[in-house]
Amino acid sequence: MGIIFQEKGNIFKLDAKDTSYIIQITEKGYLQHVYWGKKVRSLNLKYISRFYGEQNSKALEEGVINNFSLDYMPAEYPAYGNQDFRSPAYQVQLENGSTISDLRYESHNIFSGKKKLQGLPAVYVEKDEEADSLEVVLRDSVSGLKVVLTYTAFKDYDVITRSAQLINEGKEELKILRALSANVDLGCKDFQMLQLSGSWSRERHVVKRPVVMGIQSIESRRGVSSHQQNPFIALMKGDADEDHGDVYGFNLVYSGNFLANVELEQFDLTRVQIGINPFDFTWLLKEGESFQAPEAVLVYSDEGLGKMSRTFHKLYRNRMCRGVHRDKERPVLINNWEGTYFNFNEEIIKKIATEAKELGVELFVLDDGWFGKRNDDTTSLGDWFVDKNKLPNGLDNLAKYINEQGIKFGLWFEPEMVSPDSDLYRKHPDWCIHVENREKTLARTQLVLDLSRKDVCDAIVKMVSDILDSVPISYVKWDNNRYMTEVGSATLPAERQRETAHRYMLGFYSVLEAITTRFPEILFESCASGGGRFDPAMLYYMPQTWASDDTDAVERLKIQYGTSIVYPSITMGAHVSAVPNHQVNRITPLETRGNVAMSGTFGYELDVTKMSDEEKETVRQQIITYKEIRTLVQFGDFYRLLSPFEGNETAWMFVAEDKSDVAASFFKVLSSSHKKLSVLKLKGLDPNKDYLLIGTDEVYGGDELMNTGLVIPELKGDFQSYMWRLKEIK
Ligand code: DGJ
């Protein structure tokens, strides 16, 4: 059993792969956090009793229980109002207006496996033996609020998942003001906090800052997890770095407004919390009703950020992504967006698809502009029927033609949106998120459909399914191109208006569940103006995400490096586009654009018919190379070697699980007259294996490659790159 309850001391010990997480029920029935880190066989009870502060231990020893203060105690799910003055994990308002509650232990349940989270995406198990779960029931005796904290410890991963459910078992209405998913009070003050921040076309840049006294937090208030902040933070202890030291990762399985909060306080405890953003959120809990908070994934690494990332990667590849495509190699695709934007017709599309097929591409994706009267971004969202001016023979015939060329057909949708200039909006003006009598702010000339409403969700499922039923489609790109404003719903009563954003997410997940279940063979890729919703919840429904609208190879180094902190390469859409690059106007070599994009799910985002023969030959070779390394990139272990945030050079590598196959890539941004012997030290190899450097007759030991490294060839000019392939010789 990975989870045990030890009656002596009232201790829960949760053992994941090489990790232990220990909780104690105190004498007064509070849930105290005791330990999270490298696996330990047991903890001395004396240590634990002294753990929550000298003053508390003294009070307990002397039996002066009233001197006990929660402010000293590392807590698992702290309340507000009873002497813990730090940020609470939850808060409810009672009918008398008070916001005080006091949760005490009531019971617990330990079982094999992991239950599903009602209506929400979560890490799953395929067999009960893969994990053990603990449910701890806490109760506030005055209000009747019951809270069930659920923990799962995974046998093969250094992962603990957590969530909280709030149930009203009292006689009065409760209003939830805050219901975070996890709270951990780490017994140390010496942390760096790492977050993945940015903007549209600059997503998930690595930002580090020392944790100082007080609160430091990141959040989204935009209705999606956002380009600006990813629902992830890592706390790196002391001088922990890429390969060394204790790192604690927290990722919320949620695509809406979130808060990740770190608070260092007077007794050198660092409180870390993650969950739905309490900002502009309340939830009415009537008698008998319950509220389920999303799941938080907690990863511990004793070998720096790199090991933490590989744990997230493996977990998400195997137990977050689902469906028939989870374990399948993903196709090399070509998308016409940057090639044509809205300006295409049937002939142009057929030509691009046919030429791309000749070069080895496996899937053609028709992007925005195929429906309604969509010749620019001001119209037609919601009118999901084909534009016969552009495609006179219909989508069906186009898709069949493309399939006959031996290449699959994929299609773009933006189903959560509506253009004011659309038949859908004219018919149902109240179907969008809005507040009566307030201006509806447009962004990209569109509004967000109100997915907190079941009728709207049903209509979306029908509109999308009608197309997927009638056209041979192998892939769907599901886009979302604006944030929420004037958040409110036409159908919710006043006291539930602040539930709209979360109700939207629940409706959205139900739509995704319905469509992906009905079309299991289709490969879905999510997108939100690039990577505005790159989060684990989306991966539960759609096993890949378009990483960014910025396709410049140099900018992509930071975006992809940052994304790799949490998300596996197989989930990261990465395409070669034309130069000068449409976002930054930079001209980079086609080889470098290829090498960067080959580190994710590879494709092209250009009009191949406009390429020279020489360029086409390069593309042909790139696709051959990618197909050779595809298994390695999509299913291998990822190691970061040089950070684009720390210098002019970036490097990363992929190693097969059995260490037999290796691909390593090096990128240099600017050229310099500074000549030097540069070597790249590899990681993650078997020191006792010998590796052949492909394309040569040179053989290197794994130990040699990791300690002396490979010599980086002289690369002339700016924006150069190099890829090595190594294979074990048996
Ligand atoms: C934003 C996406 O990120 C792009 O790739 C493209 O699909 C456009 N939307 C289409 O409007």
Helix content range of the residues, please? 10-25%
Bound molecules: (2R,3S,4R,5S)-2-(hydroxymethyl)piperidine-3,4,5-triol
Shape, please? globular
**Beta fraction:** 25-35%
How many strands, what sense, and barrel or not for the largest sheet?
10 strands, antiparallel
Q: Over the alpha carbons, how many angstroms does the gyration radius reach? A: 27 Å
Report how far the terminal alpha carbons are from each other.
39 Å
Number of strands: 38
CATH class of the domain at 3-319 equals Mainly Beta
At CATH level 3, the topology of the domain at 3-319 is Beta-galactosidase, Chain A, domain 5
Number of helices: 14
Output the structural class.
Answer: alpha+beta
CATH architecture of the domain at 3-319: Distorted Sandwich
CATH-defined superfamily of the domain at 3-319? alpha-galactosidase from lactobacil brevis
